[in-house]
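Researcher: Here's a chain I'd like modeled. Treat it as a single chain, no partners, no ligands.
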Amino acid sequence: MHIVYELRDWWHHQTWLEIIGFITALLCVLLAAINNIWNWPIAIVSVIIYIFVYFKSHLFADMGLQVYFLIMNIYGWHYWSKKAETEEKLPIALITRTEILYSIAATIVFTIFLGSVLKHTTASYPYIDSFCAAGSLVGQVFLARKVLENWLIWIFVDVIYVGMLIFKHLDLTAILYGIYVPIAIWGYIDWRREYKKQVAEIV
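Model: Modeled as a single isolated chain. Structure tokens:
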């Protein structure tokens, strides 16, 4: 019974805003993992909610990141819609060596710059938060451009997010990011299988 009371007490500490954000965020990632274009409109709803959630928790890098996600979700929705008439879906691409180098450089610069700015504010974990934000920026670009390796970036970033969110007592969101990890693994496996089918059809 003690566990039941603890769970009930924990549930009462969750906000409806975070609960709705949790549901829509989980749904949009699931849809992205199965390569479904409807992940984008649902993602738009989710990021708008999390702008307010992160603002209240003083995770300012992540709050700003949600604004970026909003723009990228609109772009991703548009980009995925640009398939040829003969194609059922926009084809999956592989990351290039140049994109890897640019991504690493951008992540380092963004983390140092934003972390240096946020450490002079009330922001929590400014450099870790900034690194996660930087990784998310890169991952979202590759997701929008339908690059297979976006899922590998999300796996790495989501694991770090889980720890940070637990320390900030955003338990429901920490659970969400914990669920993201196996979904991202699933997304990578599913997209890689589909990419191999694309190559086989061309050959």
